[in-house]
User: Fold this.
Amino acid sequence: MALLEAKDIYRSFQGFLALAGVSLSVAEGSFHALVGPNGAGKTTLFNVITGRLRPDRGRITYEGREITGWPTFRIARMGLAISFQRAQPFLSMTVLEAVAVACLGYQGRTFALLKPLRDFKEGLAQAEEALQKVGLEKQSSRRVSELPLGDLKRLDVAIALAGRPKLLLLDEPLAGLSRAERREMVAFIRELLRKEGVTLLFTEHDTEAVLHLADRITVLHQGRVLAEGSPEEIRQNAEVRAAFLGGGA
Ligand code: ADP
Assistant:
């Protein structure tokens, strides 16, 4: 069953057609990659899916409900999370505090004076559990601003998972990492999300990593779907090779 469906999405910017009739179907439990050269429309599609941008035409359905044009917070409440730079607002906090705030926030609670201590303790316990899941328990008392990039990306994922999402969107999760760190991150994402039963939609430039992580790939090119299929089908697709070689991705 499709957890997320985008149907015939159009979006233009000052007359420039960034998305020209894109359809995408993400099956429940799958790891679905969205790839394509720079400017293909990947970020625009992510923004349309998460409600940051309105499509000019087309429909987005999630769990069978139409969510087109819904505000981002309402979409997030339905279990669709985007992990991109989640830790950013928490830079001055410790790792544990950042995840605890996220846990409480997802439950509709916020830190405030006179908040019951029970809520706070619950948040901390959940945060400790989340940090163990992503292997950051030893970093829990470090400041977020002091974390190396690889750990910061793990923290982003921990914060996104605090809301217990069904679908996680990752925008270039490997960007900026060394080759060894990329390999580690791929294993981390795969193991963690399988265990948690989370469906993944991600963009990524590292072709090798995409072929390792994804079980379904959609290739965008100039705002259109150029190809869709299994990693093996995409690897053998001549049109895809031509577009990638020509697009520099
Ligand atoms: P990708 O993520 O695949 O690199 P984007 O979705 O960022 O592609 O961009 C697709 C096209 O739309 C690009 O040509 C980009 O310049 C254009 N675009 C994206 N966002 C805007 C915007 N806010 N204003 C004007 N043009 C934009």
Residues 13, 16, 18, 36, 38-44 surround adenosine-5'-diphosphate (CB under 6 Å).
